[in-house]
């Protein structure tokens, strides 16, 4: 990743792109390197500009944000953050499965936008409880198989790693997991890395999905 975070804005509404660009461009550590009005343009721009972060709308002409995300992740063309009005939960869950690193609401304030871009640029998944857990919980409930056995890969986890996976699934940060399990943050970071490695998961968002789909967390859990 370059010293300044390179950001690509993808939305079929020019006003939305302009608004995001105004907020991002005044920051010393962020550079808007391109804009796109649909998924096909997003792929072209990402290949040309090599962004660190792509702010991606979902519903767009020619190619939607889900398919574009799938292509960008496959080619390792930046961390994709889905920008949504939150009106189609199924689209959002599909985007997560396609490899998106998280969500940003279109009505987010400037500070939330900056935090989201910086977090994604550092490789951190965005697990905002009011968004990610609602979407994943709902979709996991709809696709749940009541008598499905646990995935065999869970047997490779230690008892502590399994506990960490459950807390990851609830959207807890490393510091929150450390407090819950009375561990140091460095130790938690090691456990998280072990969980992701053993289960062949790309990031924390995939860990959340895995925890729900494996039945470790009930979609109705608070």
UniProtKB/TrEMBL annotation:
GO terms for biological process: phosphorelay signal transduction system; regulation of DNA-templated transcription. The keyword Phosphoprotein applies. Residues 150-215 form the HTH luxR-type domain. It holds the Pfam family GerE. SUPFAM superfamilies: C-terminal effector domain of the bipartite response regulators, CheY-like. It comes from the Bacteria. PROSITE patterns: HTH_LUXR_1, HTH_LUXR_2, RESPONSE_REGULATORY. Keywords: DNA-binding, Phosphoprotein, Transcription, Transcription regulation. GO terms for molecular function: DNA binding. SMART domains: HTH_LUXR (SM00421), REC (SM00448). The modification 4-aspartylphosphate is found at residue 57. Residues 6-121 form the Response regulatory domain. This is DNA-binding response regulator.
